[in-house]
Amino acid sequence: MDGVIADTEAQFMDWYEKEHGIRVPREERLGVPEQDGFPDKTAVRRYVYTPGFFRTIPVMPGAIEAVKTLMEDYEVFIVSAATEFPQCLAEKLEWLNEYFPFISWTNIVLCGDKSIIDTDYLIDDHCKNLDFCKGKPIMFNGSHNVNQLHHTRVMNWDEVLALFAQEELSV
Amino acid sequence: MDGVIADTEAQFMDWYEKEHGIRVPREERLGVPEQDGFPDKTAVRRYVYTPGFFRTIPVMPGAIEAVKTLMEDYEVFIVSAATEFPQCLAEKLEWLNEYFPFISWTNIVLCGDKSIIDTDYLIDDHCKNLDFCKGKPIMFNGSHNVNQLHHTRVMNWDEVLALFAQEELSV
Q1: CA B66/CA B79 separation, integer angstroms
Q2: B134:A112 CB<8 A
Q3: Quick one: a GO biological-process term for this protein (chains A, B) (predicted)?
């Protein structure tokens, strides 16, 4: 969800700018872990525990249409590491209901560790999830993961669709 | 969670008694789907959407000590069908933090359909989850499931521990 269908980095930049009056561009965070990506090192950690943060994240460009397209051929589940931040659970469901109302509650998983999730593919922005996933891992590009190069990488949702179109051809 | 570590049926009986002044014993619900288990057929459906319902469910007898014992040899995950009832998400986490504080947020999964959960065992009170699980299914006895006989059944948490002790002997 975060960093894949939700543009969590854009939200960090927006909230940081609101608080500190400075817009720290993505280029300055390349290869930097998310929590260290801004001059005020307490910011990210504070934001993710603030009510409203997860409810108001902008949708990742192209995500809504691309997920709809994938659902024509695949059963799509939203699997979000969320139980670390109890206040975000309801916000994440409300967010999904607003932007992805076509995804049923049956296909939403709010979890911690994703190691027990068994899907044919996993699109994620973190190696901690992709390295041990049971299906094919797909790294969704984000500033923090640009140096983690051992998984197939997609730069955006157009590239996700292109990848799956190719998968279908190769079956 | 419900019907396994949380005695959801006891909570239904308590809430029904509070509302209607009648205690409908377990014996009258044998083989009856949960939502049909009380004379007022609207009751169960109303209760599960009522704030506070999930937060105040009594713990299943023996569950806390048994889960602690299992954690000596197994990695235990709590996997709860919860996304159908958005108001219950935070309540379920709070409930777990109160009664099972030794279970990390990393090992909590709040989901819909459990079909993408891949564990070696699944202890559950519903065939809809057990029939398609990837590991060994274990049916936790409940009034509503007494006629569903195609899975190994445990009557209580003592029997869960006995079953796993036997599993270890047979390895």
Answers
A1: 17
A2: no
A3: pyrimidine deoxyribonucleotide catabolic process
Distance CA A61, CA A155 (A): 11
CATH number of the domain that residue B24 is part of = 3.40.50.1000
**Which residues of B does the annotation mark as catalytic?**
2
Domain span at residue B13?
A: 8-170
| A117 Cβ under 8 Å from any chain B Cβ | yes
* Residue A88 C-alpha, separation from nearest chain B C-alpha, in angstroms: 9
Q: Tell whether B90 is covered by a domain.
A: yes
Domain contains B2: no
CA gap B150, B140 in Å, rounded: 12
Q: How many domains does chain A have?
A: 1
The predicted complex's ipTM stands at 0.91
Check CB contact under 8 Å for A90 and B93: no
Q: Is B93 in contact with A77 (Cβ distance < 8 A)?
A: no
pLDDT per residue, tens digit, chain B (171 aa), is: 999 999 999 999 999 999 999 999 999 999 999 999 999 999 999 999 999 999 999 999 999 999 999 999 999 999 999 998 888 999 999 999 999 999 999 999 999 999 999 999 999 999 999 999 999 999 999 999 999 999 999 999 999 999 999 988 776
